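U., I forgot to send this yesterday:
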Amino acid sequence: MRKLVLVHGRSQQNKDATALKREWLDALHAGFRAAGIDTRIDEADVAFPYYGDTLAQLADDVQVPAAEVIVAGPGDVGDGEREFIGAVVAEAVAKAGLSEADIRAAAEAGLIELGPLNWPWVLAALRALDRSPGLSGAGIALATRDVYTYLRNAGVQRVIDRGVVTAMAGGGDTVVVAHSLGTVVAYNPADTVALHPLDHAHFPVTPTVDNYLGVHNPTPNRHGISGYLGDPVVARRVHDALIG
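Result:
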């Protein structure tokens, strides 16, 4: 069986790394059972690079308090960060099917200038997302800030990447399962790969890269790792990769 590396996402600070690793494996084993697979993975054979506390500490050094993300005015964050958050929020609005009328209705007072990079529009859009079932405007904004901090702060990135690269090192093939911000982290240590999109044109691998949209994640925020690993299709893909 190939080596398995699990890369967690954001908001994992102040947690026990061993318990968190076991939570991932329990969810994966549940997915195995749902898929009719009688396989168990020994915890000792799995690498789980835990960076939750480190990321939180480093992010606190470079960010304004997290709550200010939702109420910040144009002067409270840099132009680059404001543009980054705005672009992500605009994408979330599009995927949620919200209209400009929905966003105007969410504005606290008066009309707002339209446009994804206009800060009043972004704040109103976050409030509109909060009104949509299963979505959290605050969660989107805070997650986006973590991603921005990781991508734009070389010091933060080096520290986090170092631990993940160490976990991936060693002989033989490695199967990487990453979640949320962890997918950004896992993708970034291999910069030569990141030069091109992960599609069949650049990487004619078998099986081909598959964007599976069939997961029905039952976790409270619809984003918990157990809701993904417990899916039989996802679990089978991981299993098949592990056994080669």
